[in-house]
Write a structure and sequence with these properties.
Number of strands of chain B: 13
CATH class of the largest domain in chain B: Alpha Beta
CATH class of the largest domain in chain A: Alpha Beta
Number of domains of chain A: 2
Radius of gyration of chain A: 21 Å
CATH superfamily of the largest domain in chain B: PurM-like, N-terminal domain
Radius of gyration of chain B: 22 Å
Distance between the termini of chain B: 33 Å
Number of strands of chain A: 13
Strand content of chain B: 15-25%
Largest sheet of chain B: 7 strands, mixed
Strand content of chain A: 15-25%
Shape of chain A: globular
Order of helices and strands of chain B: HHHHEEEHEHEEEHHEHEHEHEEE
Order of helices and strands of chain A: HEHEHEHEHEHEHEHHEHEHEEEEHHHH
Structural class of chain B: alpha+beta
Largest interface: A-B, 29 and 21 residues
Oligomer: heterodimer
CATH superfamily of the largest domain in chain A: HypD, alpha/beta domain 2
Strand order of the largest sheet of chain B: 8-10-7-11-9-12-13
Structural class of chain A: alpha/beta
Shape of chain B: globular
Distance between the termini of chain A: 49 Å
């Protein structure tokens, strides 16, 4: 398939692996510990597992799978709010499919649907707006979530709804931001990450500039990476090359999609509709300052948090979950005490087991479970 | 049927003049009798059914002559929408049950047909589906010999659900079972994977995608008979329906306590299906098929079986996709086209609802 197969060429992969291997002798740190590189984005994690990239890499490179799966990091209290909204008889609650299974403190949206709530899967916020036109006597709520990648489409939908004067459409806004979260990880004392693969599609919107603090203040090299397997390998190679040559820059591997200055119309739409929250709660990471957005006051009519009465309760993560440590690279997913036993994709306890983009779910689905559990046994002895 | 028998049937037959199904059509009275006569019996039309007894009866000696074991299976069909590119629920209800018999090595013979109809369904829709069932039954060489009709109130079912059960006879010397895979065996499939699942997604129209993918829904008994002729010792065989080939391969690996090594580059997948999976984030390994057989055969028979399959109209794109290994036990490993390796596990949750 054109424009796809070119980015999955096994011969080019071999050549890149050889190039990466050749850099080993130039990295003194390897005498004491392997390089830890974090791919922030869940889309990257998915590609890494889907194509079996991890076992192709030399053992001195460890990939740390970051918190960039917006479905995974949704806290239980917010899911409870969704269920409460969806269970109102006047409401049609619309959501992306992968948010359906995220557990709340009592039930997931999937369970709420089975119990009779009118919950519909959509592929775009515009589908939700179309439902509002079709069902003038019902309130249509769109469950808006995602990083800067999905923010523009929700913002544009709100702008369109406002221009059309639609009264029965609103957002339950759970959009989150990338940069404060990376900063929170960098500030954590047990962090050992040596470099970052930055999210390609977030960068397509925000551009390169917001990542400069990582190289300048934290002295960690960063490469903006695409989502095909060769994109990932090439980005790893670029990152290792920076480390080997003691450089520390923001580099853009995904230049075919990411303009250095980002996408101005998209950024304008975001700016018009959303404003930064003081803090936002993340599953596994706790509260992070400025890590979420809410709707501006002049769009209050379209803000489900204002329009409807929400329980808005904070629910603590289950104590046995070690999602936070996995997210920071302190432990590997399979080292968590409940991985693969109490916490499985069918009955996820922790955030990272919820979506196929979550690090734990990826290990569970694409790894050898028995072997991983055995490895954990050996560690605890 | 000869002319005098046809005449008798016509004299006895009622006519259904209603345009839509009402609760009266399930009441056991004249409306139901007219519906059964006019829509089902006239379409299925065979000696055993036309007697209209509460059961169909067969001669044991005829069955005995075909083999030494009977195979019995049942399946219910709830696909939404009822009509989709390349097929409909009626065609599916015949092929699904025929294929479940055929993959056990049985020659499928007789089917039952249970209809659960939601009130309000247009009678013409039922006629079209019954005609499609007959056509598919003829293609597979089976007869629908007994049936049942129920009507439920609006909302108690969605348009139409069909259950079919079937019996067939397994010839002497055939012993196909999921626990018979042996190290060194090879695994064949009769063509492109994922067409049915992709066609259903397309037909539902909620993805606003346009393509030309048709279901692969087809009876497999003729192809399987040809395969068994050149290799009676097929070890394992299943049709890869819901859960796709990933599920079938995992079932084989578990039952036989062997490893299976799948080659991504060997998988036959249409570009249209690949493209749709790329856009929607689906994995073709888990997409449903309704006309694909996955068989584990001794390596020495591989070439001959593959040749026979490719020469058959239902197996032109057949390929060897995997081999049976000693380790890892009960695991399916895929060598990815990128040069990496990953585990292919059973599907967790659902990829797509109500595809068959």
């Amino acid at each position: 398939m054109k424009y796809v197969d070119e980015f999955r060429d096994p011969e080019k992969a071999k050549a890149l692996i050889a190039e990466i291997n050749a850099l080993k002798t130039q990295i003194p740190q390897l005498a004491s510990r392997p390089l830890q590189l974090m791919e922030f984005c869940g889309g990257h994690t998915h590609t890494i597992f889907r194509y079996g990239i991890e076992p192709m890499l030399p053992d001195w490179i460890e990939l740390i799978h970051g918190p960039g799966c917006p479905v995974c990091v949704l806290p239980m209290g917010r899911v409870d709010d969704c269920v409460a909204l969806a269970e109102r008889p006047d409401v049609i609650f619309t959501t992306f499919g992968d948010a359906m299974r995220v557990p709340g403190s009592k039930k997931s949206l999937l369970q709420a649907k089975a119990d009779g709530a009118d919950i519909r899967m959509v592929y775009s916020p515009l589908d939700a707006l179309a439902l509002a036109h079709k069902n003038p006597d019902r309130q249509i709520i769109f469950f808006a979530l995602g990083f800067e990648t999905t923010m523009p489409s929700t913002a544009l939908t709100v702008l369109q709804a406002a221009a059309q004067g639609v009264q029965n459409f609103s957002l339950f806004c759970n959009h989150i931001t990338t940069v404060p979260t990376i900063k929170a990880i960098l500030d954590s004392p047990d962090m050992q990450i040596d470099g970052f693969l930055a999210p390609g599609h977030v960068s397509m919107v925000v551009g390169e500039q917001p990542f400069h603090f990582i190289t300048e203040h934290y002295a960690k090299p960063l490469v903006i990476a695409g989502f095909e397997p060769l994109d990932i390998l090439q980005s790893i190679w670029m990152l290792v090359k920076q480390i080997a040559s003691r450089r520390c820059l923001v580099e853009n591997q995904y230049a075919r999609i990411v303009p250095p200055a980002g996408n101005m119309p998209a950024l304008n739409a975001i700016e018009k509709v959303f404003t930064i929250r003081e803090f936002f709660e993340w599953r596994g990471l706790g509260s992070i300052d400025h890590s979420g957005v809410k709707m501006r006051e002049n769009y209050a009519d379209y803000d489900a948090e204002i329009k409807f009465n929400l329980p808005n309760l904070k629910i603590a993560d289950p104590k046995s979950c070690q999602c936070g440590e996995v997210l920071k690279g302190v432990i590997r997913p399979w080292e968590c005490k409940v991985f693969g036993t109490q916490c499985q994709p069918e009955t996820p306890m922790g955030a990272l087991m919820v979506s196929t983009e979550g690090a734990c779910a990826a290990y569970y689905n694409f790894g050898d479970l028995d072997e991983l559990l055995q490895k954990r046994e050996t560690l605890s002895v | 049927m000869n002319d005098s028998a046809k005449l008798k049937l016509r004299q006895r037959s009622g006519k259904c003049h209603a345009e839509t199904i009402t609760m009266a059509h399930g009441s056991g009275g004249k409306a139901m009798r007219d519906l059964i006569d006019d829509v089902f019996v006239s379409a299925f039309d065979n000696h055993e059914l036309n007697k209209l007894e509460d059961q169909a009866c067969f001669d044991l000696s005829t069955l005995n002559a075909l083999g030494h074991r009977l195979a019995l299976t049942t399946d219910s069909y709830v696909v939404d929408p009822l009509f989709f590119p390349g097929g409909d629920i009626g065609k599916l209800a015949i092929t699904g049950t025929v294929n479940d018999l055929a993959v056990g090595g049985a020659q499928p013979l007789y089917l039952t047909c249970g209809m659960i109809i939601e009130e309000g369904l247009p009678v013409d829709t039922l006629r079209t589906i019954a005609a499609s069932m007959r056509q598919t039954a003829d293609l597979a060489g089976v007869k629908i010999v007994t049936g049942d009709t129920k009507v439920v109130p609006r909302g108690a079912a969605d348009k139409l659900f069909i259950n079919t059960a079937g019996i067939g006879v397994i010839p002497t010397g055939i012993n196909i079972a999921a626990n018979r895979a042996q190290v060194g065996d090879v695994i064949v499939i009769n063509g492109y994977i994922g067409d049915h699942g992709a066609a259903i997604v397309d037909a539902r129209g909620d993805m606003a995608l346009q393509n030309s993918i048709e279901t692969d829904c087809q009876p497999l008994n003729s192809l399987i008979a040809a395969m068994l002729k050149v290799c009676p010792d097929i070890h394992c065989m299943r049709d890869a329906t819901r859960g796709g080939i990933a599920t079938v391969l995992n079932e084989f690996a578990h039952s036989s306590q062997v490893g299976i090594r799948l080659k991504e580059t060997a998988l036959p997948i249409r570009d249209e299906v690949r493209g749709m999976c790329e856009i929607l984030g689906l994995d073709p390994l888990y997409l449903a098929n309704e006309g694909k057989v996955v068989a584990i055969i001794p390596a020495q028979a591989a070439e001959q079986v593959l040749n026979v399959m490719r020469a058959h109209p239902d197996g032109r794109h057949s390929a060897i996709i995997a081999e049976v290994t000693e380790k890892p036990v009960a695991r399916v490993i895929m060598a990815t086209l990128f040069g990496g390796e990953r585990v292919v596990d059973m599907l967790v949750g659902e990829q797509l609802p109500r595809i068959c």
